[in-house]
Amino acid sequence: MNLRDVVVDGNKFELINGGGFGKIYRVNPELVVKIVRTPSTIERQRTILEGEYTIQRALFEKSISVPVPIGVLDLQVDRWSVVPGFFMQYIKGVNLSELSKDEYKEINEMVKREIEKAKDLGFVIGFDAHSKRNSIYGVNGRIYLIDFMHWEMPDVTFPTQTSFSF
């Protein structure tokens, strides 16, 4: 079964982006879910997503511009299959790779400033932080950093929340 066939609150998931390690599905107008698409075990996928959630939550709490992180929950894909998913706020906007050269030059300065703020707070920045695919330019004129799989914040530990109400 494909995640596009899963229905949440009467809505089918819509694939909106896919990177090297994951796919992003829109659940509803305000919410997306990231699914890790690696051949690893469900436990490993959950660990990867929980790590990313922890970093994104810490960034959000330090006022770095990121989508609001909701949490990691298991999705029942069909009768026999469960996959972990990282739920977060949907940001309407464009990936930096979709911008013209002139737009990119100006907006990339905003990305650099957000990354520098994170560095100043002690975050260890992932090697791909400056990738055009790891930022969204929102229709509200704000930049949002995304994809923290390769970031680290050894000083921050948060308990993983296992249930949420939407």
* Overall geometric form: globular
Number of strands: 10
Report Rg.
16 Å
Order of helices and strands: EEEEEHEEEHEE
Indicate the low-confidence ranges by residue numbers: none
According to CATH, the homologous superfamily is Phosphorylase Kinase, domain 1
**Which architecture per CATH?**
2-Layer Sandwich
**Overall helicity:** 10-25%
CATH class descriptor name: Alpha Beta
Largest sheet: 5 strands, antiparallel
Strand content: 25-35%
Order of strands, main sheet, comes to 3-4-5-7-6
> Could you tell me the mean pLDDT?
85
Count of structural domains: 1
What's the N-to-C terminus distance? 24 Å
CATH topology: Phosphorylase Kinase, domain 1
Number of discrete helical segments = 2
What does this 3D model show about the protein?
- With 166 residues, the protein is an alpha+beta fold.
- It has one domain: 2-Layer Sandwich (Phosphorylase Kinase, domain 1), CATH 3.30.200.
- It is 24% helix and 29% strand.
- It has 2 helices and 10 strands, in the order E-E-E-E-E-H-E-E-E-H-E-E.
- The strands form 3 sheets. A 5-stranded antiparallel beta sheet has the order 3-4-5-7-6, with helices on one face.
- A hairpin with a 2-residue loop joins strand 1 (7-8) and strand 2 (11-12).
- It starts with 6 loop residues before the first strand and ends in a 21-residue tail after the last strand.
- The mean pLDDT is 85.
